[in-house]
Amino acid sequence: MLTASPELPGKAFAAARRLGAMTTTGAHQEAAGTPDRAWLWWGRRRSVALDVGLGALSALECGLEGVGFAEKAALPVPFGVLFGLLVGAVLVVRRRWPIAVVLVSIATTPAEIGFLLGVVGLYTLAASEVPRRIIALLAGTQLAATFIVTFVDVRQGVDTAEFDPGPWYVPLMAVLVSLGLTAPPVLFGLYIGARRRLMESLRERADSLEQELSLLADRAEERAQWARQEERTRIAREMHDVVAHRVSLMVVHAAALQAVALKDPQKAVKNAALVGDMGRQALTELREMLGVLRSGEDVLAARPGGAAASAAFAAEAPAPLAAVGAAAAAAAAAAAADDGPCLADIEVLVGQSRQTGLVVELSVHGEARGYAPEVEQTAFRVVQEALTNVHKHAAGARVTVRLAHRDAEVAMQVENGAPDVSGGAADAGLPSGGNGLVGMRERVTALGGVFVSGPTDAGGFRVSAVLPAVGVGEGAA
């Protein structure tokens, strides 16, 4: 019978759900707080504020630099200021069109307008998903343009100076200025882009793990439902095996007692004593079974086989399913309780049936040896249920019980002839739930055995079962 409480798998399922809730990724949190997509390509208000602020600052810088450009080009100052404002404002679209921003920066480099535009544009380009070869081409073009403009400005300054700094000064200053305005934003942008891609990869991995965890939680819930159903099935089977046989014998004895009460008082007294013994035995077995149900956790802790099974399952299964594994191990441990019936009790079982007037022949072939508790219990229950069916459906029939000990298996067979009421036996009117053969088959197949049942040519019925001969030391393994 299954002794694990159904609350244990439920707790495992709840823990899995809590763990799934804690793995909510930043992408989910960001999506939860994202406004509507009316913000064009930005998606968030702070991105709009940042780009508009940078655009305004760049427009202000380019507007001031446009004054000098207008003076050098002999153009009206308002034209130079307007030109600078338009060029600087291009920075607002840096996220959508980073290549266009860099191209505008390269085009205005000879006019010495838009240093902020060039730095921020190169950073945005390097951090974007643009192919690396395009980034290298545009960055190289910006570097060359800046080098040429700086070289020309420094040479003009040296020519008007009163001292000669040497031939190395002009190219050195041009290299330093061009690298200083180009390399840092490109390198920083590449770093930010790589970091952003890494974070996206981690978010995707977290989403995948969350989905897997959800699947595991669903599987844990299914396992919990299966465990509860298995528990109910095992309890029903044990109750049927314990109660049906004893009560069936009590009903048979009570019927015989009623028949001989006036004719043979001594036999009536004997039958009454047998009914009392059967009732006490049935109560004892019921108390033992209910005691195991109430102390399932203690039974699991006391049985090395159950603890080993639980540990093995917990080591192999994910955390949400470990509790369900413990429940299954508890069920197996309780089902294989060492204090249950065994093969040696079959003789007592046959004797009880004989006391009701049933003619039962017991034959044992092979040398008896120790088997695993679950094997002996299953063999006993098969014979017990078969004899119970004889009492219910074949009153007065002759019964043959065969038990064979073989090298790799143990076999049992219960065969009865056609009902014979000529000798005074009568049907006791025992009800049948139709679960006896089903329960026997479930028990046998659960151990990897073979179960066959059906009518015989002589009008009787035969029940046969073969179980693998698992030794006592192998049962827990």
Provide the number of structural domains.
Answer: 2
The mean pLDDT is 75
Rg of Cα set: 45 Å
What is the string of SSEs from the N terminus onward? HHHHHHHHHHHHHEHEEHEE
Distance between the termini: 19 Å
Sheet/helix structural class: alpha+beta
| DSSP strand count | 5
Flag low-confidence runs.
Answer: 1-38, 299-338
Largest sheet: 5 strands, mixed
Helix content: 55-70%
Quote the beta fraction.
Answer: 5-15%
Q: Strand order across the biggest sheet?
A: 1-2-3-5-4
* Global geometry: rod-shaped
The number of helical elements comes to 15
Fold and architecture overview:
The longest helix has 92 residues. This protein is of the alpha+beta class and 477 residues long. α8 packs across α14 and α11 packs antiparallel against α12. 35% of the residues are buried. Strands 1-2-3-5-4 form a 5-stranded mixed β-sheet, covered by helices on one side. 67% of the residues lie in helices and 8% in strands. It is built from 15 helices and 5 strands.
Précis, in short:
The protein contains 15 helices and 5 strands. The chain is an alpha+beta fold and 477 residues long. The protein folds into 2 domains: 202 residues, no CATH class; 137 residues, Heat Shock Protein 90 (2-Layer Sandwich).
Secondary-structure blueprint of this entry?
Layout: H1 7-22, H2 26-32, H3 45-72, H4 77-89, H5 98-108, H6 115-127, H7 132-160, H8 169-260, H9 265-294, H10 296-302, H11 304-316, H12 319-335, H13 346-355, E1 359-365, H14 373-393, E2 398-405, E3 409-416, H15 436-446, E4 450-455, E5 461-468
Parallel strand pairs: 1-2
Antiparallel strand pairs: 2-3, 3-5, 4-5
Helix pairs in contact: 1-8, 1-12, 3-4, 5-6, 5-7, 6-7, 6-8, 7-8, 8-9, 8-12, 8-14, 10-12, 11-12, 13-14, 14-15
